[in-house]
Structure formats: C-alpha cells, structure tokens
Design a protein that fits this description.
It comes from Bos indicus x Bos taurus. It is built from 9 helices and 4 strands; from the N terminus they run βαβαββααααααα. It has 222 residues and is an alpha+beta fold. The termini are far apart.
Length: 222
C-alpha cells in the first residue's frame, strides 16, 4: 500500500492550494512538509528533488512531481476526475485553463503595490463579471446538468468552486447574477469530502495576508 502523498510548499495558498483542493475532493489524505526558510528550499534543490528548482512538489506513487498542471493532471486521472474520453478531457482542460487565468489574477492581487490596488481590483471585478463567470454560467445553462462536463464531477468543477470562494472573498456581490454557479458551489461544497475540507482545522489555507507574503518573500527571496 502506497503512503499518503506528501506536499512540499510554504504554509500558504499560492500554487499548491488547487492541488490541496483536488486531493481533498478526491477523498485523499495527504501530508505537508512546509518550506519555512531558504535552507529548506535549498535542501530540496540540492538533493535533486526539484526538476526545475522550484515548488510546488508532490511526492506520490514513488514520483517527485513538479509543475502544477502536471500534478493536477495526474491526480485527476488517478481519481477519475478527468472525463470519460478525449472530448470530455478537452472540455475539462479548456474550463480548467479559464479558471486558472482568473485565479492567477486573484492570486497575484495581494502582491500588488498599494498605489495599483484599486485599478487591479476594478480589472478583476470586470473580468469576473463580464468574461469568466458568464462563460461558465452559460455552460451550465446550455446543458442543464449538475456538473460542467458529462453530468459527473470533474476537476473542472472542483477548480471552479475553489475560484468562486476566492471571488466571494474579494466581493460577495460578484456572484449575485450567476444562480447556476451559486448552485454548483453549494452542490460541490456539500459533497462529504469537500465539506470536510471546508471545516475549520482542515489543511485548507486562509486568505493571503501581509504576514504570509513576508514569510514567502523570506523563503523564495522575491
């Protein structure tokens, strides 16, 4: 029996949080080894654990996987969250990439210089309500099913619901005009494995604040 996957990253959201969400939604228990100082990262680099000298890195099934999309693809395939055929997988990829585009903007928002924050937030709000959320609402409307692809839970649903939580953190009113997305969020959030992950005390990470940014700066030297 293989051991639990081990996640190597700092103790914050960043690029690992979508991996935590996907594992949790699949009902997979995982361990975390937090990178708390530059020496921790140097050790992983020096012992050959990081192919491209960067994290996230996940130890799973005897492999040390890096690159977020590669890790997500492997987990989704292993736990049957990646559609039943090539066409479904193509749609799941397309939707997941759209989620990642908006997610990237939101992830970088806390790093924004104070003078640029208002303009950045306005841009995120505009892209959220005029581009990304209408697109996903229309997918659900077009087929009337419970999930984005094949009427079955996939990584695309999990990534999208994670994103909807971040959108709500920014401004709860942004979801107001998207009833099908709100229903999807409620549906996925009530799945036992996801419900457990959303409880206080789980491995889900809180919103990024100044303290977390400073911790990350010390480790990653940016």
């Amino acid at each position: 029996m293989a051991g639990k996957p081990t996640l190597h990253y700092f103790n914050g959201r960043g690029r690992m949080e979508c991996i935590r969400w996907l594992l949790a939604a699949a009902g997979v228990e995982f361990e975390e080894k937090f990178i708390e100082k530059p020496e921790d990262l140097d050790k992983l680099k020096n012992d050959g654990s990081l192919m491209f000298q960067q994290v996230p890195m996940v130890e799973i099934d005897g492999m040390k996987l890096v690159q977020t999309r590669a890790i997500l693809n492997y987990i989704a395939t292993k736990y049957n969250l990646y559609g039943k055929d090539m066409k479904e997988r193509a749609l799941i990829d397309m939707y997941s990439e759209g989620v990642a585009d908006l997610g990237e903007m939101i992830m970088h928002f806390p790093l924004c210089p104070p003078a640029e924050k208002d303009a950045k937030l306005t841009l995120i709000r505009e892209k959220t309500t005029n581009r990304y959320l209408p697109a996903f609402e229309n997918v659900l409307k077009s087929h009337g099913q419970d999930y984005l692809v094949g009427n079955k839970l996939s990584r695309a649903d999990i990534h999208l619901v994670e994103l909807l939580y971040y959108v709500e953190e920014l401004d709860p009113s942004l979801l107001a005009n998207f009833p099908l997305l709100k229903a999807l969020k409620a549906r996925v959030s009530s799945l036992p494995a996801v419900k457990k992950f959303l409880q206080p005390g789980s491995q889900r990470k809180p919103p990024t604040d100044e303290k977390k940014i400073e911790e990350a700066r010390k480790v990653f030297k940016f």
